[in-house]
Amino acid sequence: MADVGEVLMSVLSTIRVPKPGDRVHKDECALSFSSPESEGGLFVCMNSFLGFGSQYVDRHHARSGQRAYLHITRTCKAKKEDDNNSGSGHPPKKKPTRLAIGIEGGFDVDQQQYEEDVKVVILPDRQEVTSEDLGAMADVVRERVSLSMAGIMAADSVSHTLQIQQWDGEVRQESRHAADLKQLDNGVKIPPSGWRCEVCDLQENLWMNLTDGKVLCGRRYFDGSGGNNHALLHFQETGYPLAVKLGTITPDGADVYSYDEDDMVLDSKLPEHLTHFGIDMMTMEKTERTMTELEIAVNQRVGEWEVIQESGTTLRPLFGPGLTGMKNLGNSCYLNSVMQVLFTVPDFQSKYVSNIDKIIDEAPSDPTQDFKTQVAKLGYGLLSGEYSKPAPDAGDENGASEPRGDQIGIAPQMFKALVGRGHPEFSTNRQQDAQEFLLHFINMVERNCRSGSNPSEAFRFLVEERIVCQQSQKAKYTQRVDYIVQLPVPMDQATNTEELQEAERRREEGDSSALTVRAQIPFAACMAALSEPEILTDFWSSAVQAKTTATKTTRFASFPDHLVIQIKKFTFGLDWVPKKLDVSIDVPDTLDLSTLRATGQQPGEELLPEVAPPPLMTPDVEVKGILGSHGNEEDDSLYSPLLSPVLDDSTVSQLCEMGFPLEACRKAVYYTGNTGIDAAMNWIMGHMDDPDFSAPLVLPGCSSGPGTTPTESLSEEHLATIVSMGFSRDQATKALRATSNVLDRAVDWIFSHLDDLESMDVSEGGRSAAESEGGRDPPPGPRVRDGPGKYELFAFISHMGTSTMCGHYVCHIKKDQQWVIFNDQKVCASEKPPKDLGYLYFYRRVAE
């Protein structure tokens, strides 16, 4: 074997020192979830700075030719007993003052301590070089290798840079009133307990004004609990700015609120201010929840968290293939729940996990940025069972205790960074809507599966919408592709109305002992609301050339292999504030949707003429096209106004003030014909889930509108995406030209023009009529699977909290006739799966 010094000299030109901007992957393997703590450690390429586990480093060496790797291994140190905290269950050494973890003033994190071993390994013979060995080598070798080793170890790893930060509650500032606060010598002395509001006798949520010693109740919360606003009213009458929350006073401090600064503040002279009214901080004990604790608790509905997480029972931990937990990266439970369910679907298993060796062999030079590789890595990590092992108990060196359910699991950091890159929401550390993430991921799968099998086809189905003009009784049929059935919740169909009314009455009376009553909604009522005709009051009928009333009926034109049902729990109140409906729905284990199968045009039924409504135009607009025509071969527009339409600016402004995107507001006003705020708001509520909801308003025939995009400027990526859905290139081109090269709009357009597309000559990407043995091509459209509409429930995702922007997600999956709860890193056998409280339900087709 060659001398190691000579070998290092021969590869010295390939050893780099990390520069600012270099991505150093020293915490996680690019192709697996191996880390420095894993068996065999992690090998970091000293040229590309990619990390590889012991099972993949030889493969990378063979493909890249790189030989020098920094081998990092970490082993746990034995924990030393803390003198100040000698037993488990004792309080932390210091009281946290901030709603943050692991930072100054926040909660202490019991970090595991590691012993780290670092050395250079030369492949293929795995010759090892330690820092001590470098001392005996040539200066040029010692200097370059030492700098590279030090640079890699000192660099922030990519996972650290992208790591989801813990939520850091706002740091409270010193009040500007604290130093010179005026306190009245009125002889008021406050007892250490037994307080009541001086106005309404309320005995909780009490605040003492630090100027005059008045004890009054706090603000009323959004749900009707809290106080009666008497402390706030007192400030408005007197201008006395600071108040302390009674019951939060301890030797460490208290909650102080400044009404003038409208924020929680610090009062450095609080002991002195309290002594003025006879309160000794050093003898006070906490009896009320602090505002920080209330802030944490506000999302935890009574009973909902415990029921969904099955907290009341001791659950049996499960380990093995398909039973792998996922670490919560900080508000990533929505991603964890969705991916656990998706990799229960055979299509995703066969696409990514069964072919993982082939995918890794074909991976690009930087697999951390390759969608297929990272999805396969995640799927294999979840299904292989390699990481489904009990997490070591920090206090149990011998491993003698019973497993608690927590697993080593996998941390999907690379995956989350990749699928969230460039997205305004999924790239952040905020909580997200699981349904929105599911659609986002399916969209990414669609774009990355232009050839070969496409697992998202398992969820894809066609929806037929039938609109009947009530004046002419003529009908219009359109089809669109969808992946999720959104099930409405008819609150007026609750079966326990009397109980709900009684609970509301007791809550309004301030009865804190009243139990939370959840509305019981029959699943059949939800299905009836989905299938019943919708009344369209402002429908423009091409038959009568005017606005009239119409009915819209929605049915399934195809039934997918796997059906996703979303319970529309999230809605808007009368004040347009988002809220969550607290409901229980008796979702069935089996489902038969056969009666909702679309039937198409009925015998003798007349169709509405294909003409468009008149555009909104200024008086001097010149109309190029002729209403009622289909344009010409060069221009698909029905009309070509030269000027922009007149929009009611006041209505647009009102909608914007409610928080809706400007372009959505403009479209709402345009498509409702300037008929007022109510009609525009109804349009917005009905189109919020549209993929182009916030896209710019595109007018037919405008110079920047549809029909004017030259073919040579069309996105090849968009063309390939539409072709992969089963359409020809000519059809994809026509759709993109008609929608200004906007992919989502083009897909919608193509499904609403299927009849027109049938008559198109098929060239590249399809067969001509002469080439078809039957003399007729199959109708254009997406590749959708169809079959019986009978299903069985196999998974559901539940949400806890008051809105999709906060709270927590868990999922339950049926595996081998046993329900299993996946709660991030905890994977346990489910005892009482809360099927009535789910948010997303997943069904699979039952074979006839």
UniProtKB/TrEMBL annotation:
GO MF terms held by the record: cysteine-type deubiquitinase activity; zinc ion binding
EC category: hydrolase
A Pfam family annotated for this UniProt entry: UBA
Chain segments carrying region Disordered: 78-98, 388-407, 762-785
Keywords: Hydrolase, Metal-binding, Protease, Repeat, Thiol protease, Ubl conjugation pathway, Zinc, Zinc-finger
GO terms under biological process: protein deubiquitination; proteolysis
Annotated binding of substrate, by residue: 207, 219-222, 257, 259, 262
SUPFAM superfamilies from the UniProt entry: Cysteine proteinases, RING/U-box, UBA-like
Binding site for Zn(2+): 197, 200, 217, 230
Residue intervals of the USP domain: 324-846
Residue stretches of biased makeup (Low complexity): 763-772
Protein name: Ubiquitin carboxyl-terminal hydrolase
Organism name: Amphiprion ocellaris (Clown anemonefish)
Gene: USP5
